[in-house]
Specification:
- The chain is mainly α.
- It has one domain: Four Helix Bundle (Hemerythrin (Met), subunit A), CATH 1.20.120.
- Strands 1-2 form a two-stranded antiparallel ribbon.
- Helix 1 runs parallel beside helix 5, helix 2 runs parallel beside helix 4 and helix 2 packs antiparallel against helix 5.
Length: 172
């Protein structure tokens, strides 16, 4: 990524092949990816699982970002979660064996999968019912995709604050 300050993703114009109604979802996911890449570029490994003031760790947020995108986009396709997805959900927040680079890369790959799904999403089906979870709580394709974007942004914000607090404490 170049060092020149760019406008936020949503101010750079439409993304090719993404349906018009799904542009905000794609913009939010790309913005999240860029912010994480910049902030965690030199993030110290020993801080990955630290929880200042009992906040969720940077590692947890990275795992959760990957997992929640997979789960919400699975529901948007009208599918149920696989055993692997449920096992991943249970493992979110586990630290051993994970690195900053590995977790950032996994999130980036999940964003790429999400963008590919957005490109393949038929805009005529955005209001179609989609059940969420075992209880099949009511949502729609658009509701799930929008929630994936806003949930991602929420966790990126929390991750950014936690990372800055941890890095500020290291500099003291």
């Amino acid at each position: 990524m170049d060092k020149e300050k760019k406008p936020e993703v949503w101010l750079r114009g439409p993304l090719p092949d993404i349906p018009a109604l799904l542009q905000p979802v794609a913009h939010a996911l790309l913005q999240a990816r860029e912010e994480i890449q910049i902030l965690l570029q030199d993030f110290p490994e020993h801080l990955l699982w630290k929880q200042p003031a009992d906040l969720a760790s940077v590692g947890f947020h990275l795992q959760h970002l990957e997992g929640v995108l997979e789960r919400l986009f699975t529901y948007a396709r009208g599918e149920t979660l696989s055993k692997e997805a449920l096992a991943y959900l249970q493992s979110e927040g586990s630290g051993p064996g994970h690195t900053v680079i590995g977790l950032v890369k996994a999130f980036e790959e999940q964003v790429d999968k999400a963008l590919a799904q957005l490109k393949a999403t038929n805009p005529d089906k955005l209001t179609h019912f989609r059940g969420v979870g075992r209880a099949q709580l009511p949502s729609t394709v658009l509701g799930l995709l929008f929630h994936a974007a806003e949930h991602t942004q929420r966790h990126v914000g929390q991750l950014l604050v936690t990372a800055r607090i941890l890095q500020a404490d290291v500099l003291k």
